[in-house]
Amino acid sequence: MAEDSRAPGGRGGSQVGQLIKLRRQSKPSRRKGADEDLAAALYRDFREPLLGLVIKLTAGDRQWAEDIVQETLLRAWRSADQLYGDESLMPWLATVARRLVIDDWRRRRSRPMEVNDDPLEEMPDTDKWEQLLQSITVNEALRSLSPMHREVLVETFLRDRSVNEAAKVLGVPVGTVKSRCFYALRALRAALGEKGLAP
Fold first, then answer.
1. Which range (12-26, 59-73, 112-126) has the least confidence?
2. What is the residue-averaged pLDDT of the chain?
3. Radius of gyration of the chain (CA)
4. Which CA distances in Å does 179 have to 1, 26, 153, 199?
């Protein structure tokens, strides 16, 4: 099935990818038009999916989320020459947005306490932030695993099935489930280690 070339982060034929290539190839005198088109395309294609993600990261604070999305898209526009037009931009954008949220959160945490406590009552406590950030990191690490490894971890750990039950559901021998589980956990530990989260 062919992927919609207008879909956010679509490969190959996306308008954003084409505009990035065009911007890279255009002469400085013609770059202003390419810059404007690229900024408009980034906003049109990625604002909504990015906003949905960032609202979760900001615990529902829409104003903060919109600021993060705007800064993320601005950084994408500024870095367009370093981005590849034929790859999905969404993972890059999501990583930049997540880092901006973490930086803002740390900056806000280091400020003195505000006089009016009403806005602070709505902020999740530190443990909830840490849990949220850890769950995002673990999710990213799980997505980096092969489908076979990911599905065996989902069946045994997330769905809390025994090795025998997981083998029946997956349609593979029990020994295969044990082996895949061993290698999947090893790969997950390595992926979490790369992300700075010690298992």
1. 12-26
2. 76
3. 21
4. 34, 53, 11, 20
